[in-house]
Structures are given as C-alpha cells and as structure tokens.
C-alpha cells in the first residue's frame, strides 16, 4: 500500500477505547462486525470474541 502524505492533524478523540501506537490509531476494543458498532468484543490474547453472537476474530498481522 502506498503511503500518502497527510496533514498533521491532532485530533483528540473521546474514549478510552483508542490508543495511539506508533502513529497509528489502534483500537483497544473491537466492534462485532455482525452485531454492528456498539457491541464490543471481548479481547483475548490472540482473538476477539463477541459475547452476543459468538463471532470470533483472530488477531493476525502483528508480525511481518
Ligand atoms: Zn456479535
């Protein structure tokens, strides 16, 4: 993916579910793609599980 130059924008977002890591906004908590935004998924060491529908999302791509 090509990197686009972006204007430096300092935006303060409310919420503790986001964390700025290495210049990237990282979500601490995931939303369930099935249940939609608002339904947080329980995050485990290597996966995230929705407590509502049971959808599991594996964490990948951390290593390169
Ligand atoms: Zn769900």
Explain what the structure shows.
The protein is an all-beta fold. It has a domain at about 30-64. It has strands spanning about 20, 25, 30, 35-45, 45-50, 55-60. The strands form two sheets. The chain has a four-stranded antiparallel sheet with strand order 3-4-5-6, with no helix packed on it. A hairpin with a 5-residue loop joins β5 (about 45-50) and β6 (about 55-60). The radius of gyration is 14 Å and the shape is elongated. The model has no long low-confidence stretch (mean pLDDT about 75). The chain binds zinc ion. Zinc ion binds near residues 50, 52, 53 and 55.
Topology of helices and strands:
Layout: E1 18-21, E2 24-27, E3 30-32, E4 36-43, E5 47-50, E6 56-58
The chain binds zinc ion.
Zinc ion (ZN) binds next to loops.
Bound compounds, each kind once, are: zinc ion
Main sheet, how many strands, which sense, barrel?
Answer: 4 strands, antiparallel
Rg of Cα set: 14 Å
What is the β-strand count? 6
Q: Count of DSSP helices?
A: 0
Strand order of the largest sheet: 3-4-5-6
**Average pLDDT metric:** 75
Strand content: 35-45%
What is the share of helical residues?
under 10%
Spans with pLDDT under 50 lasting ≥5 residues? none
Q: How do the helices and strands follow one another from N- to C-terminus?
A: EEEEEE
Shape: elongated
Supply the helix-strand structural class: mainly beta
> End-to-end span in angstroms?
14 Å
């Amino acid at each position: 993916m090509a990197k686009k130059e972006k204007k430096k924008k300092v935006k303060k977002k409310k919420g503790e579910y986001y964390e700025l890591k290495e210049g990237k906004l990282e979500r601490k908590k995931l939303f369930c793609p099935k249940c939609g935004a608002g339904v947080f998924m329980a995050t485990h060491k290597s996966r995230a599980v929705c407590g509502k529908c049971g959808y599991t999302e594996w964490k990948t791509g951390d290593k390169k």
